[in-house]
Amino acid sequence: MGKALEGVRILDMTHVQSGPTCTQILAWFGADVIKVERPGAGDATRGQLRDIPDVDSLYFTMLNANKRSVTLNPKTEAGNKIFAKLIEACDVLVENFAPGAIDRMGFPWEKIQELNPRMIYASVKGFGPGPFEDCKVYENVAQCTGGAASTTGEIDRVPIVTGAQIGDSGTGIHLVAGILAALLHREKSGKGQRVECAMQDAVLNLCRVKLRDQQRLAHGPLKEYPQYPNGKFGDAVPRAGNASGGGQPGWIVKCKGWETDPDAYIYVITQAAAFAGLAKAMGREDWLEDPEWNTPAARLPKLDKMFDEIEKWTMTKDKRDVMSILNPLNVPCGPILSMKELAEEESLRESGTIVEVDHPERGKYLTVGNPIKLSDSPADVQRSPLLGEHTDEILKNVLGLDDNEIAAAREQGAI
Ligand SMILES: CC(C)(COP(=O)(O)OP(=O)(O)OC[C@H]1O[C@@H](n2cnc3c(N)ncnc32)[C@H](O)[C@@H]1OP(=O)(O)O)[C@@H](O)C(=O)NCCC(=O)NCCS
After folding, report:
1. pTM exceeds 0.85
2. Rounded Cα gap, residues 230 and 282, in angstroms
3. Average pLDDT for residues 193-208, to the nearest whole number?
4. What residue's CA is closest to ligand 1, atom 18?
5. Beta strand spans in 104-206 (E)
């Protein structure tokens, strides 16, 4: 079976993380992604957080798999012409520069539409229209302005940003959905359109349940939050430590070895339907007869005490053993897995979620493969391209330039 997006060509003007996440997903699905980079420099992440001198960083290699790289400066005369030809030859332009950068290259949306009315033009920006629309934004700025930081962290302590890149990668994934919708719509309309995704909006979308809670707060305390019943609620959704965001109480509890292993913990959700099994497994059958414990309503005001009791039991066991005991009892739970453990996890290697890739300059490295699995359209992971590795090939085979034209462009510093 062919790849899902075979035949779709992407003009990839992305850099850093949000945009590259988007185009990497499109590339995994088989789109021909042509990454345009500044001659001599390339995407800044090639050189950031390097672990090996003079070799493309893992930051870059893990976000740019399955793409082709062409060096091109659209701000030169020859480069401008080549860029126009690329617009004509591609289906989708994806970019995440500061607002106005593509316009300043001489390619406002009107000009792009003139060159290729079927072109879909997709952008990530920090903010949508409004007071901050011109601002430059990185991951943590989006987490702070999108509602994630104000609702993450320990109770009464500073706001915390999460390690999950919900601002960058989260927005890139949203943008993929917009591009695919626009591609489908183009089948009917014959026309391309603008697709825009602001990082603040994407983070807020991912924090949807907290806006739910903001509105619930107007009608009384949030009973599943650890602040209930003894703490105070203000007029905005507070940080809730590790409390579950859903209707079933959950918390992180210590497991055997926590004194020395920072990841010897497990998340346990005391789902009402499975509570009896949990109580029996930990030797607390007495709870099931006791009106102080045997209903969700009775447990609600003392969740901290309940989790203290559960922890006394989990502390006697390895986190994976706790999971093995609780899973058959339908108790939802998950050990805190370190990146080391995930990198070594056999089942993730087998499913292609963690992949080992060979790179001509750095050798073998691990990357996260496509987490979205299609039954008939396999997605393999190819190493990231070297800077300008495919410049000549693309100018010749995609745009039809001859050797003289390529040499002239090179002389001008356009490629
Ligand atoms: C990420 C970000 C903060 C980085 O800012 P930055 O390093 O100052 O880079 P900018 O995007 O402002 O600008 C890039 C410049 O390089 C130029 N450039 C990019 N590719 C080029 C190329 N191939 N040839 C020549 N010039 C190029 C652009 O034209 C622009 O120049 P200009 O400002 O004179 O018009 C900014 O791009 C941004 O806010 N992006 C939108 C939000 C986003 O995606 N953030 C998350 C990133 S993970």
Report:
1. yes
2. 27
3. 98
4. 38
5. 120-125, 194-198
